[in-house]
Amino acid sequence: MSDEKRSMLGSSLPIPTYEEATSSRAPSDVGDNPHTEEEASRLLASSHGRYRQPTVETARSSLESSFLEEFGDSARPSRESLERVMVEMEILEPGQGGEGQQRRGGGGRLRMHISKRISSITDSLSAISIPHHWKINPLRWFSCIRIPDLPCLGEGFVPLYRVMGVIIGLVVVYALLASDSVTLNPPPGAGGTIEFDIDALKDFIRDSIDKDNIEHYLEYLSRFDHTAGTEGDFVLAKYVEGEFRSFGLESVGLDEYSVYLNFPKPNGRKLAIIDPPWEAALEEPKANDDRENTLVFHGYSKTGSATGPLIYANYGARADFDKLESQGFNLTGSIILVRYGGTQMDRALKVKAAEERGAAAVIEFSDPKTEGWDLPEGFVQRGSVSLMSFIVGDVLTPGAPSKPDYNRIPLEHNPGLVGIPSLPLSWDNARHLLQSLRGKGSKVEESWTGDTRGVEEWWTGSINDSPIMVELENDQVEEERHPIWNVLGYIRGSDDYTKRIVVGNHRDAWCFGASDPNSGTAVMLEVARLFGKVLEMGWRPQRSIIFANWDAEEYNLIGSTEYVEDNIDDLRLHGMAYINLDVAVSGKEFRAAGSPLIQQPLLNVLERIRSPSGNGTLRGDWGDKFLPGLGAGSDYVAFQDYAGVSSIDIGFAGDPFPYHSCYDTFEWMKNTGDPGFNHHLAIAQVLGVLIIELADTPVLPFNMIDYAHALGRYTDDLEEHAKEIMQAQSPGTKLLDFKDLRNAVESAEKRLKEFDEKHENWMDYLEAGLDTNGIIARQSRNARMSNFEEHLLDLSKGGGLPGREWFKHVVFAPEAWSGYDAGYFPGVRDALASKDWELAQKQVEKIAKVIDKASYKLLN
């Protein structure tokens, strides 16, 4: 975000209720802000009468304003109650946090041992404040000390006498500082801060998380639907912005982009069997009579209609279509029926594979056997069919932010979009279609058989022999420049403030979104609240922190990607880590995936967090697992794969949940998903402590050897995969030569180990305090560690993955045809999937050069 925009968004505004944000009140009613109600009406006018506005019945009239008032009272503990907690934790002394007193540094365990940092105190403080408001410059005070001559002492004793006098003076000052008889108050703008004991700070953040606050945040965030770009989305953007301001975060504001979105028309979708006549009930039954559901559709689906024979194609993987074609099926003009999940997890790639075989449209349904849930049979999984393994962000501006000054590519034949229409369907309706196929075509094998409740036999359907003809319609609103809103709040670092840690979670949901994504938003709000409290005490992290609430993630990771593309040079130079939440809680098993650089920081944090099961720590739950890599599917993609910022995604998962459905409500979370909100508490503790671990340790806790070992594992896995693919496709063919890659990985392991074990002179003085040269050396070490990830990007002219040039990381990216899965060395895997052995060998050699260069730069 530019400084100009930050200042423009810097004024404090009242948070609008839902009714206020969607009304036509005069701009003067809401303050001096570009997002006035008149402006909001203009921005959102394009959806009126087309994509349904979030409903404003009785449940949304006076509810939101009263809820906000109640929420404001209960979710923000008073200053007095917080201070009582701090006193109990020995972070503040009794009476230290009086109204109007600047709490710089606090007391108890959070005070740095001043005896180790006398020099830094005198450098960073310009005044000492003592009772009765006496202001004394400490340096001038010491310079005015005069030690009188004592005639009874011989001349040889005078130097010793003077030294003893200085020592006594320092002891007195230390006693005053340590006892809080004086407080340390740098004047505003002076930039001075007192360093906090990091372990005590981690304990405070961990122990101060309030799960009742998280529950209350989540109740409001999932109170109404908020698909990207709609009124409900805008209201929650303003709400999060207001919370960030109230917490004391800096430069808080909305960051707007104009992107391509599509929305369903209320009567624009249809799915029917022509003979005998039958029509599917596309909309999901209401989970709560007080709230209207969003319409059922696929984001980024093609607008259009089709009529053709119905064919069942299992999970819609390319291997499934190969099997059908081997049985003599010509799929041209057919309507393909496929299950969600299975061997092809990405719903978009199911559509893409069908399109490549000539199909006219696709229907995707939820199979209880595959997904393992026992939800209402009318449950429908919405979702996007964007080709996010090829392009993420606004598909009209790949590689550039969606701002007015940037060119756009056409919608037609766009590499990020599918070319045929599709619709999601409930099991209840899909069952009728499957029953109609009985006796048509071929009876499927066991691996193609789904739930048998009501569908005793599963058949493929037929193209020629009495086919079941189906009609599908999908009419949508197409908006090429529709506003979305990221919400950003900053905490400026005190030391290497240009470096930053970004913490992100998206806000938009396909419906109410209690687990996906608002469990993450609620957790982030509670953590941000606590960081605001320690800011009040005078704490500053060594590196800057950005809290980001992204928009339009569900369509194609749009908000986060546009932000990264808008700030790419700055992030590649200064971004040190990105922490992603998304679905923070949907089950009971702790999960994490990310760059090997963040493996050690994560383990450090998990040792401090009690397991919600009550059996030891999360470190014990995690065991000896390696941190798996990141694929696609959430907002870490642009940071890891395009900007080269080491990223991690964390949460609790494992159990089936009402994914992308209007059954994903606060009531479901409270009664079934996480009763007691103990898993929300635990993931908030992980997040808070991990932020401190990455943002406030003098030396980044990255273990470079972890990356070296990971590269070795990835190479072993790739070589085995290549051998298996090539021998299956071309028996007897010459296998890939991995010698260069092996040599590069071995060299990298030696260099990374040398870097990790190298002892630099400044390290001996880290506790006592570094001089200017030592600070520069420490910052250089941190920069070299974080830049290692960036140096694994292929930034050569025309660089990137062949055919998917937006993806720049040579080690991590989603595989082109697996979608969500991490593909280690994806350039090689893509070539192998395409049976292009020559390209695969070239990619092996290119990756070897990139890794060798990156490890060389680490030491040089």
TrEMBL record:
Pfam families: PA (PF02225), Peptidase_M28 (PF04389), TFR_dimer (PF04253). InterPro entries: PA_dom_sf, PA_domain, Peptidase_M28, Peptidase_M28B, TFR-like_dimer_dom, TFR-like_dimer_dom_sf. Residues 307-382 form the PA domain. One of its GO terms (molecular function) is carboxypeptidase activity. Residues 486-669 form the Peptidase M28 domain. Residues 32-41 have a biased composition (Basic and acidic residues). Residues 1-58 are annotated as: Disordered. Residues 736-858 form the Transferrin receptor-like dimerisation domain. Belongs to the peptidase M28 family. M28B subfamily. This is Transferrin receptor-like dimerisation domain-containing protein. It comes from Tuber aestivum.
